[in-house]
Amino acid sequence: MALDRRAFLASLPASAAAGSASVSSPLRLWFRSPARHFTESLPLGNGRLGAMVFGGVQEERIVLNESSMWSGSVEDADLEGAVEALPEIRRLLIEGRNAEAEQLVNRHFVCKGKGSGHARGKDLPYGCYQILGDLRIEFDHPEEARDYRRELDLETAVARVSYEAGGARHEREVFVSAPAQAILIRLSCSRPGGLEFRVSLSRPERARTSADGSRALVMSGALADGRGGDGVRFAARLEIQAKNARISAENGRIRVENATEAVLAMTAATNYSRFAKLSGGDPVRICAEHQRRARRPWRRLREEHVADYQRWFERFSIDLGPGRSDLPLPERLREAYEKGGDPQLAALYCQYGRYLLISSSRPGGLPANLQGIWAEELQTPWNGDWHLNINVQMNYWPAEVTGLGELHEPLFALTESLVRPGSKTARVYYGARGWVAHTITNAWGFTAPGEQASWGATASGSGWLCQHLWEHYLFTGDREFLRRAWPVLEGAARFYADMLIEEPKHGWLVTAPANSPENSFVLPDGRRAAICMGPAFDMQLLRSLFAAVIEASRILNTGEELRRELEDKRARLAPSRAGSDGRLMEWLEEYKEAELQHRHVSHLWGLHPGEEITPEETPELAAAARRSLEGRGDGGTGWSLAWKVSFWARLGEGNRAARLLRNLLRPVPGGDGSVRVTGGGTYANLFCAHPPFQIDGNFGGAAGIVEMLVQSHRGVVRLLPALPDEWSSGRVRGVRARGGFIVDLDWSGGRLEEARVRSLKEGALRLRYAGRTLEREMRAGTVLVARPEDFA
Predict the structure, then answer these.
(1) Which of 143, 151, 225, 478 would suit a FRET pair with 20, their CA atoms being 20 to 30 Å apart?
(2) What percent of the chain has pLDDT over 70?
């Protein structure tokens, strides 16, 4: 949006600015009715605190979240003596007896204890991310409402509800402030003294709420530690300010009468402090301290919040053409899926992904989990944890490319926190140096395998996490960051170097035991198995990791002995190959697939997010990857569809990528658990449907949209590499590229008009458009303006 319009709105009184926001905007999600389910409500957050606004007329429900609401506690989940079974497991794999090897893995290469409880870990030591509670506001006016509107403004991170009831206009404005560390709610009524309501704070278990005077509620409690005692302690405090109104406490609620306007401030805290830079102190006291910051005038609170949010959000903008912003979001999703013709919806979805990342991941906090920070359950799906075989990594795919690199920091902190427990896991299971993390982790440093071999024995989690450390360096060129990351990278590389064995047919080095995440194959005797040697996913990942550590060693002038070891072993890793059917082989052997259209497509990691496979430099492998994608099909869970957008973008097939994006935006009904849906899509509030809600698809979809417009791998910045026909004209500002570049593009008629590339550091720029390349040496701060005729 134009700067002059923002300046104009900022100059208006708060009520006038809110009123002007009711017009249709390409950066608003809006509805004609209150939310019936969680997946219709509006998400707000400041990285630590989260809120879901339902917008009811007689009762407003706001689901409250705090990022460290984790049950469970630190545990030793490594199964002692596991390494003693390793030689026999490897012998069986070498002999082709995968089923017998898998039986041993299921006995010895699983965690000690109950692990994640097969995704039901709430009352186990593994724990679970949980809801903080519910804030409910009951209004004393008729349920019938006219001229209802509920919206979320992505430009300001403010939610609004407005309607007419009982002959008066009622308005609500809600945001979650990082400067104030509070959820802030402003209620108003057009009739003086016409605002009357009751407020309550509640939680389904392990909490009590009491009034603190007539204007405050305090809720406090402790989550289960998984051993029969108390774990993380938490508190929430709600304070109400309303001039010329009667305010009283009754039965654990606060009643407000004869008000015209009221401001509610909700603060929350826990004593969690394992690796995030959270307070770790007394939650009740911390809530009270935050309330002092929230007692300032509404206008000032709002201005500080908007300024803080926009310093992230305004780094990037995207315009893909016209759309139906005049339609409420559920109708818009349905029309776009059935009829197409709404390129603006893709731009909105991209910015929504950035909005969710800004709202759920801030420096010093915990990383975005499987639900970001938004959950309404005690037992969230899959424990609301961090899955390391794609999901948490996908959460951060938009970070670097859309100017949010600093928001990557919580993932880096999580990765660093796993080194110490992962070092013990590496010794206990593999007798190896370095450190390893498997498929899942939690707030307590879980690095052991999961409780079942078919999914839990994947040992590649730490390697994939390290790719994010290296990627951050590639985007920024920050050597101080690379020095910080070096011990983590070095330790991961040492582990995998020790894990490798020589397979007998070709003498290649391979991982063993291993699997291709969550997938399985059929043995010649008809039995199904998952455990194998050297799946393509592992080999591609290790080629990338070893190359990164080798280069980091040279840059930092350290680790020469390790560098030589990795150079030797990298050259001997099993290569990516096409099978007899022309598809890229997922396993070392050409096994029959148990599920042809499996949601995971891990053997194409080297196509994306890796850079091993490109149409220009490895055309045979790119063709094999294409055939694999054809075989997998255009269906899948939400995050799987999002990944396929980027796969097809890397293959330069924009229309196919757009088809996958359309499937990702398929409207999914329900959200209350009563509707059974096959395949992924999008809920009414744009949350990704796995189903159920899982936020990685939102982030992966946003990154995939950018991947269609700008790519930067193998030392080349590619412009409009996969532009679909339906985005024939548009512009994008602020795309970050590896090598330290910021790219702005304008195009029309499906052709580039102008590119502007600003360099953040000194170095070579190789710019490619339509198969032609422009090369320049760039200095920090210089800008290259390029048009189609400039490419040789």
Answers:
(1) 143
(2) 96
Going by C-alpha positions, the residue among 403, 397, 319, 408 that lies closest to residue 360 is 408
- Strand locations in 242-303, DSSP E? 246-250, 253-259, 261-270
DSSP letters, 519-536, are --EE-TTS-EE--BS--H
Q: Round the average pLDDT of the chain to a whole number and report it.
A: 94
| 3-class secondary structure per residue, 261-273 | EEEEEEEEEECCC
Structure tokens at 678: 């096959």
Strand partners, 511: 500
Whole-number Å distance between alpha carbons of 39 and 49: 18
HSE, CB side, 13 Å, CA atoms: give it for residue 336.
Answer: 32
Q: Do the Cβ atoms of 388 and 517 come closer than 8 Å?
A: no
> How far from 76 is each of 73, 112, 421, 442, 703, CA to CA, in Å?
10, 8, 9, 13, 37
- ω before 13 within 30° of 0 (cis)? no
Q: Which 8-state DSSP code applies to residue 516?
A: S
Average the pLDDT over 639-654 and give the result: 98
DSSP label of 730: E
Structure tokens of 763? 């170095």
Distance CA 106, CA 457 (A): 9
3-state secondary structure 467-502: HHHHHHHHHHCCHHHHHHHHHHHHHHHHHHHHHEEE
Whole-number Å distance between alpha carbons of 276 and 616 = 42
Q: Which residue has tokens 């920091």?
A: 409
Angle between helices 419-430 and 479-499 (to 10 degrees): 10
To the nearest 10°, the Cα dihedral for 459, 465, 466, 468? 150
Please say whether the dihedral angle defined by the alpha carbons of residues 525, 529, 535 and 536, taken in this order, is positive or negative. Answer: positive
Q: Alpha carbon of 185 to those of 114, 176, 242, 663, 698: distances in Å?
A: 42, 9, 12, 36, 26
- Least Cα distance to 167 among 146, 196, 139, 187 occurs for 146
pTM: 0.95
**DSSP β-bridge partners for residue 398:** none
The CB density around residue 118, as the number of other CB atoms within 10 Å, is: 14
